[in-house]
Amino acid sequence: MKLFRLPRKAKKSLKRTIWLYPPDENGSSLMAHPATSQKDYTALKKGIVCDIMIRGDKAERKLERKKLDQEVFVPDDDLKKYVDDLIVEDLRYASYHTLIEAKSKPRTIKAYYNFVNAYQLYEKGDDSMGNICCLAIDLARDLLKRKKKRKKRSRR
Predict the structure, then answer these.
(1) How many helices (H) and strands (E) does the chain have?
(2) What is each CA distance from 48 to 26, 34, 95, 112, 129, in whole angstroms?
(3) Tens digit of pLDDT for each residue in 19-29?
(4) 122-154 pLDDT tens trace
(5) Coil vs helix vs strand at 20
(6) 25 to each of 12, 29, 54, 108, 118, how far by Cα in Å?
């Protein structure tokens, strides 16, 4: 049986985005990997699989982003309840402290706003916003990491 292979540039461009199958009746979608799976690649060519960023038109995405970026602050006790409700017990402590730290830094404050606004929409019944909350925590964690600068060695 012949292995599934793609040209290097095509494979690289497919790996850069997240591909999803159409949502089912619950609104959840399966993730596709067209760079590594023949089945997912043929579904992509048929137009079944689509890029996560192309869902909805540009105006809808902009409006949703505006909703998530609104400035809102909640007391730390409420934030702790939000994290306890969404996050698994092992990761609660780290996630909570990541959000507290993100709240105080100008570079990461949007991740904090995204978490709080997404959780409030999640409480109202939009289940897909639970994933957005987790992504906001990951974004805050990534933005808080500081890259180490390498010391330049002098040549002798």
Answers:
(1) 7, 3
(2) 18, 12, 35, 34, 24
(3) 888 888 777 78
(4) 999 888 788 889 889 999 999 898 765 667 776
(5) strand
(6) 32, 10, 20, 35, 22
Contact residues for 82 (Cβ-Cβ < 8 A; gap 6+): 74, 115, 116, 119, 133
Nearest-angstrom CA–CA distance, 57 and 36? 28
Residues 6 or more apart in contact with residue 3 via CB below 8 angstroms: none
Q: What is the pTM for the complete model shown? A: 0.63
Structure tokens at 79: 């934030």
Distances (CA, A) of 22 to 81, 131, 155: 33, 17, 57
Q: Count the residues in the chain.
A: 156
Share of the chain above pLDDT 70, in %: 90
Read off the tokens for 66.
Answer: 């505006």
Cα(69)–Cα(53) distance, rounded to whole angstroms? 17
DSSP 30-97: -EE-TTT-HHHHHHHHHT-SEEGGGSS-HHHHHHHHHHHTS-----HHHHHHHHHHHS-GGGHHHHHH
* CB atoms near residue 83 (< 10 Å): 23
